[in-house]
Amino acid sequence: MPGWVWILLGAVLVLAPLSWLKPSPRHQRLVRLREVARQLGIKVALTPLKLDEQVRIPGVAYRWLRAPDAPPLPGYYCWLKADLPQAAGLTECVPGWRQLNGRDHPLPEAQQLDFWAWVESLPQDVFALEWGSASFVIWWREGQLEVDLAGWDAVVRQWLNQSASR
Q: What is the biggest distance separating any 2 CA atoms in the chain, rounded to whole angstroms?
């Protein structure tokens, strides 16, 4: 075999692992999605949802913060998808969702149907929603990457403003 073939084969063997460093198309879409979220002011955290010290559900949190000058939001609410094992034994608030705590919904009754209709339009891998005194969080596994984050942003900010004025 000629020497140049050995050199070419050696170069291919040395450079082939570099192709593994290139992000996959899915990872590139994730980076773009998270960049859009950052531009909209949504905080993205790759951290599990902690229900207590022992129970953690892996996922990604997309967190909307209330405006600094806005009044605190009422209470803390957490809804889990009913098909999660951690949701067994919790109170079902609407079909498919269970409420972790027994408090009333933070929105006025007239807007609750709109809220749950919007929740049903979210990707199927959304598994939890949190509504705290300073934020609203969507927990999901980012399986469906073609989502309308700008639409989510507008709706969530509307809910946050309505509940703050309640």
A: 81
